[in-house]
Amino acid sequence: MTYKGQAYGNDGGILTCVDLQTGDRKWKGGRYGKGQMLLLENSGVLLILSEQGQVVLVAADPGEHREIASFKALEGKTWNHPVLVGDRLYVRNAQEAAAYKVALD
To answer: Residue 105 and residue 95: Cα distance in Å, rounded?
Structure first.
């Protein structure tokens, strides 16, 4: 996923930021496994659903890997993409599904 000249993605289960112009890695941090993410562009935040079922908000900041908030959303492994519709976050795996009301600023 790209945002303001940076690419954010999974590198061996670790979130990584790469400068698109130079190809330099800016940082590598946060072990989210084969999780999926959304860019909340208006907030400059990555919303990650980790392979372990954790929802994590990470600043889309090339300066550093910085977790803003996190909570356990599901038990067990999940490789499914989170979905955000209005103020509702929907997550699921093979055993369960959940919806959370989120505060949007």
So the answer is: 32
